């Protein structure tokens, strides 16, 4: 609305200027008169303000595959079992293998040969058979889970539930501690199954 | 899969009753109250009952309704997205009820990962940080003060078509099959204009785009796209974005799969490597027959879909039928749409409704003289890269029967001798 008002006022101003400066109104009546070309635009417009360190820290919560962004803290599968039962099982099922639709299945390794495209039905992506990076678990769970109270798990709870999920998927031993050092070092079973998109349009189907 | 929620759209009974209904019932005359139309309507359809409002026998002889603040649809038009009620799921565009190229804002499909957030535009902020010279925060006023662009583009979820490929059945409508699609005019600021304000450092190859919903939904986007045609969109079809569409600001990446067009955008972090977020690894990747999966499969290949005649609409009688639909390509302009009325044995070039725009959907039409014999209708899009929309057989061979996303194969519809139209999953 503010913009609208400004545009309207600008239009009126131009009309007033045009009326006041129309010295040769007789011959130019109905004509366009002299019009300057638009000014060249600057490289920048100087909008925005500096972000403060506190603002950056509050929002910069992502974690990348190298582990950048992982906080201090630690957790084990045994601790994670308690967290999972209390905060995850109501949607994903008690073992992560039988979720309540439409929530995703979390645990399961079949098909171990990653043959998802070759089965019309009967195969389901899980953390164990599909996710290429373990760090993604922290990145996602910290921000988005539990769905009804996102962002409420402590760092320790998050590491613990990740340890439980990875152990249930037979990716790590049950006694392995998950923390900012060990989590990025986990090699997921499907780590090397992903290829960059090679479609480019044109003839032929990919 | 949490994003298979739209599977629930399969052939609901309600859908067969939801259709655009002509005003013919009004001609019946009497000023009566009755139920809403029950008939499966569509182009040329006639309502079986008058609507639930008083209809004057002659509207030219009574004073009409007064002005109002916001237009509502005619009570003769019964429409809606479907299914509804999911916070992590989708509702689909009723494509079979539309004409022309533009999708009305309130009927555009939704796909949310944690519901629709309520965001006050006065306090909304966009943080741009990471590999930049100046880590900064921008307000909506900041964005709206920058030079804007306005362009028409389609927006499509990469899961569009899953039901036709994995759960085909005769009573699927275009809404069920291809309803994760809309086409609109978008207004906003080129991302490159904003990035000039922060200064991009060398080594910035990707940006993590994060939404302000309860999932902080995020995708990694290559800098090349952001410096090409990407926009920070704040208006659509001339008005502010709707909440379900990302109000107050969304990232818009023309031609790229819907989920990369992060809604309720609040953060862009310039980085050297992709983040490998949940949605770009565990969800929106395409399994291939060689037991790999395609990752960062952003572009939506050329595609078309017939919207009439299709289930639940019917063809009333033999004679001239206007076959109509939409075609689009994430790689550029649609150059041609071919229509077949004999299951792909022969093809004829359709008419296009205007000049095709890059990465925009366009209406195609074809006048078909139906002789009353059973027929199979198909459409096939071609774009300016020379790409031709594949057949179902070619698609299945190339991607595998269990693949996911980017289902752009040719769709087929069977017209029976009685004019009933059904989806034909195997052509």
Walk me through the structure:
The complex is a heterodimer of chains A (206) and B (427). Chain A has helices at residues 2-21, 25-28, 53-59, 77-87, 89-92, 135-144, 155-168, 182-185; strands at residues 49-50, 74-75, 178-179, 194-196. With 206 residues, chain A is mostly helical. The longest helix of chain A has 20 residues, at 2-21. The model of chain A is unreliable at 1-25 (pLDDT under 50). Chain B has helices at residues 13-17, 140-145, 162-166, 174-178, 191-198, 223-226, 278-283, 392-399, and strands at residues 89-91, 110-112, 126-130, 136-138, 149-156, 181-190, 206-211, 218-222, 231-236, 239-240, 250-252, 265-271, 286-287, 293-295, 303-308, 319-328, 334-340, 348-349, 351-352, 362-370, 375-383, 412-415, 421-423. The model of chain B is unreliable at 1-48 (pLDDT under 50). Chain B starts with 12 loop residues before the first helix and ends with a strand. Chain B contains eight helices and 23 strands. Chain B is mainly beta. The chains are: A mainly alpha (206), B mainly beta (427). At the A-B interface, β1, α3, α6 and β4 of A face β3, β4, α2, α5 and β12 of B. β4 of chain A pairs parallel with β14 of chain B, so a sheet runs across the interface.
In quaternary terms, these chains amount to heterodimer
N- to C-terminal distance of chain A: 48 Å
Query: How many strands, which pairing sense, and closed or not: the largest β-sheet of chain B?
Result: 5 strands, mixed
- Computed CA radius of gyration of chain B, to the nearest angstrom: 23 Å
Gap between N and C termini of chain B, in Å?
27 Å
Uncertain parts of chain A: 1-25
Summarize the amount of helix of chain B as a percent range. Answer: 10-25%
Nearest-integer average pLDDT of chain A:
90
Q: Given the C-alpha coordinates, what overall shape of chain B results?
A: globular
Helix share bin of chain A: 25-40%
- If you compute it from the alpha carbons, what radius of gyration of chain A comes out, rounded to the nearest whole angstrom? 29 Å
Task: Output the strand order for the largest sheet of chain B.
Answer: 4-3-12-7-8
What is the average per-residue confidence, as pLDDT of chain B, rounded to a whole number? 90
Spatial sequence of strands, sheet with the most strands of chain A: 2-3
- What's the shape of chain A? extended
